[in-house]
């Protein structure tokens, strides 16, 4: 059975990505590795400091049979993609960034963590350069949202994310919810005049339809 491996820095993502995968691709297996210390270290010392630990976790997923790996943490996603491992690895927000560039050129980014801003901005710039498209990016940190997330107050977390995204309407052509944990805010923003992008569904679709895999989709 073909298997997607997921590298997480929070266990909250496990049911989200399991559900998205098995809902559409029931014959696709999933395995997960969760290591919260990766994000803690990245915030304290910078993403580069996690390189050795990230490689160790990717090797763990490889050992357990992953055919492709999605790193669901935007902060360390670039480090995961650069890992020297005989396994396709992509960051969760890459498919979303590619879609945002196509919908731009004015792209708004909402993040819950300051440490996510630079990796996300750099990724969008990379995708824009690859597509030869000129863009502008407006970055917003959603107030005290991360403290709510850490406290387990998901309702409050999503409320603050939603408010921050609403404030961008009229100034951008597309709004990117930079972290996978923000995806539930998408349903609160359906009425906006611009597209709202979150990463989980696009990432699962990318993994399941990757050229490295052949996976039947639910009809």
CATH architecture of the largest domain: 3-Layer(aba) Sandwich
Helix content: 40-55%
Number of strands: 8
Strand content: 15-25%
Strand order of the largest sheet: 2-1-3-4
Roughly how many Å is the radius of gyration? 17 Å
Rough shape?
globular
- What count of domains describes the coordinates? 2
Detail the poorly predicted runs.
Answer: 213-219
What is the top-level CATH class of the largest domain?
Alpha Beta
The quaternary state of the protein chains shown equals: single chain
What is the CATH topology assignment of the largest domain?
Rossmann fold
Query: What's the number of helices?
Result: 9
Main beta-sheet strand count, sense and barrel state: 4 strands, parallel
Order of helices and strands: EHEHHEHEHEHEHHEEH
Q: Structural class of the helices, strands and pairings?
A: alpha/beta
Describe the structure.
- The protein is of the alpha/beta class and 219 residues long.
- It folds into 2 domains: 3-92 and 202-208, Rossmann fold (3-Layer(aba) Sandwich), CATH 3.40.50.1860; 94-198, Rossmann fold (3-Layer(aba) Sandwich), CATH 3.40.50.
- 45% of the residues lie in helices and 17% in strands.
- A 4-stranded parallel beta sheet has the order 2-1-3-4, with helices on both faces.
- Helix 1 (13-24) packs across helix 9 (199-208) and helix 5 (94-103) crosses helix 6 (114-131).
- The longest helix has 18 residues, at 114-131.
- Mean pLDDT is 91; it is low at 213-219.
